Amino acid sequence: MTTFLYSNPICLEHLTPPGHPERPDRLRALEAVFEHENFAPLKRLEAPMAAEDSVLLAHPERFLARVKAAIPEEGRARIDEDTSVSPRSLEAALISVGGALAAVDAVMDGETDNAFVMTRPPGHHAERDKAMGFCLFNQAAIAARHAQKKYAVERVAIVDWDVHHGNGTQDIFYDDKSVVYCSTHQMPLYPGTGALKETGQGNIFNAPLSANDGSDHFRDAFKSRILPALENARPDLIIISAGFDAHHRDPLAEINLVADDFDWATGKLMDIASRYNGNRVVSLLEGGYDLLGLAESAGSHVLRLMRG
Ligand SMILES: [Zn+2]
């Protein structure tokens, strides 16, 4: 397998308040992991900044204008209780989008089998018309629409194993059967959505887990709900909303996964991709707030992407 790794140092300059879990050190911890010789075969690329127009693939113009207006000239400003912006946050968010679009292009054009986009802010809580939960723009959703628009891809699957439900991605595709959204997440937990009965047009597959469920429950949810949905959808492209906050060390949740679970889940998705679309997998960093847990988990995930 060939794997592209996208990053950009401007993502370190999206600043959140002291003590905020979604902090620049997350990317520094990942950079340190990918320096190990195991990762030497990765092709490293700078995530480009997306044009503002690409945000409109998943969000209305008034939303983009509101986010831009919220960016302060100095210091920090709050969009909501959890979501802060600093002077370079718009650039960082457009890089999160741009990295996702570049990864889709590289995978669709056959330049690489798969790609991991290591940027922040994350995106899966950003609804069509609302930035929230540390997220400004929903890069997974934008990337899916980009693949459909530019490559005439019919069926895109977004698989979200972040421990929080991706309410934003669900919101954007709730009435759009062309994108299948599958999520494992802890419930009850922020943001409160993600029940089994939220099914959209038959294209939303939620697999809620309970606090203290561990690896077995997570893998059972994958085997019983997520993988059958993907088999049925036969996706032309798989986008992973790769949050690593279901790791047992994470301070925000209690699902208690280990790094090996992310290796396993990655392998299962690659197996689907090998059968239906020639290995096309684009993985986008979402959450993961314990630096060691994040590093171990993302390391296992990317090693699997590289090795198949
Ligand atoms: Zn999360």
Automatic annotation (TrEMBL):
Residues 20-303 form the Histone deacetylase domain. The lineage of its organism: Bacteria, Pseudomonadati, Pseudomonadota, Alphaproteobacteria, Hyphomicrobiales. It comes from Pseudohoeflea coraliihabitans. InterPro entries: His_deacetylse_dom (IPR023801). It comes from the Bacteria. This is Histone deacetylase family protein.
